[in-house]
Amino acid sequence: MRTRIFSILLLLFVLFTFGGCDILFDNFEDWEDDDTPSEPVEPGEDGDDDNNVLLGIPSEPSLAEGTMLIEHDAYTVLYSYDLLMPVWVSWHLDANDSGDLPRPSRFSPDPDIKDEAYQVKHDDYKHSGFARGHMCPDADRNGNEAMQDETYYTTNIIPQNSSMNSGDWSQLERDLRSFAAAGYELYIVAGAVQGETGGTNSDGEVLKEWKSEERDVAITVPSQIWKAFVIIEQDDSKDDLERIANGETPVYASGIIMDNAPFDGSWEDAVVTIDEIEVLTNLDLFSALPDSIEMELESGGAAKLPDVA
């Protein structure tokens, strides 16, 4: 015991003598003031087989400066304070999620964003020439009023070309819901890429950002929008990850990348592999899947979609 006390005293003497104590307390203060968000919930940790990130969180909030991971019942979003738009939004979809509730008329700031400087408001898009483009669609959650309302948080929208928003992007959303209605369930991730060019508004202007006429904020206009999805047969009695790993369900997977501009063609013309989305975004999608299955799905090995005609 005496030897241990002597060693501690000697260490303290050295620290004070050579300035190490300043370093020690500086580091302590840095640690104490650290604003890094806490660890997110791991996929499936809450026991919910339909967890919105069951197949993996695309990126950790600590790896992306100026972002916040927000978990709502309707979806999970990685929101960028710097860009004032979502980096990605992840959600689960099956036939129970859709209904016929009327659409809300306005978007509202996300209550989990406490600082008004980082909130986007409905009127910030006024006269921009861009649609308030949902990532997780209203119709994927209009079977539950509380969850539908969450899709109208501004953390779930981007400045999106209007004709694309109401055209082939909307058709893609309807087609994915048709799989859910036919007895499948889907794990979907959608996001946007800032890029170098920006997006095209309804006046034909190409903008990299839109400065609100109401407030001193600038919302980033993405140049490309993407979506990746995994489709399996619905079975609520078993864990989906286990079913995929054990080969108990057919698995389909694909991805889409579209320019944020008028799109001439069908969304099928924009199909890419999930690997291509990962290269574009630097994200690791569906990372909770076993490596061999993830590699096959993301390289295009399951690109054929279910026949629900």
TrEMBL record:
Residues covered by the ENPP1-3/EXOG-like endonuclease/phosphodiesterase domain: 72-292
Alphabetical list of SMART domains matching this protein: Endonuclease_NS, NUC
A Pfam family the protein falls into: Endonuclease_NS
GO molecular function, one term: endonuclease activity
Active site: 134 (proton acceptor)
InterPro entries: DNA/RNA_non-sp_Endonuclease_sf, Endo_G_ENPP1-like_dom, ENPP1-3/EXOG-like_nuc-like, His-Me_finger_sf, Non-specific_endonuclease
Residues the entry annotates as binding Mg(2+): 165
Gene3D superfamilies reported for this sequence: Extracellular Endonuclease, subunit A (3.40.570.10)
Region (Disordered): 32-51
Record key words, sorted: Endonuclease, Hydrolase, Metal-binding, Nuclease
Residue span, DNA/RNA non-specific endonuclease/pyrophosphatase/phosphodiesterase domain: 71-292
Residues in the signal sequence: none
PANTHER family to which the protein is assigned, alphabetical: ENDONUCLEASE G, MITOCHONDRIAL, ENDONUCLEASE RELATED
Descriptive protein name: DNA/RNA non-specific endonuclease
Organism (species): Candidatus Ornithospirochaeta stercoripullorum
Lineage start: Bacteria, Pseudomonadati, Spirochaetota, Spirochaetia, Spirochaetales
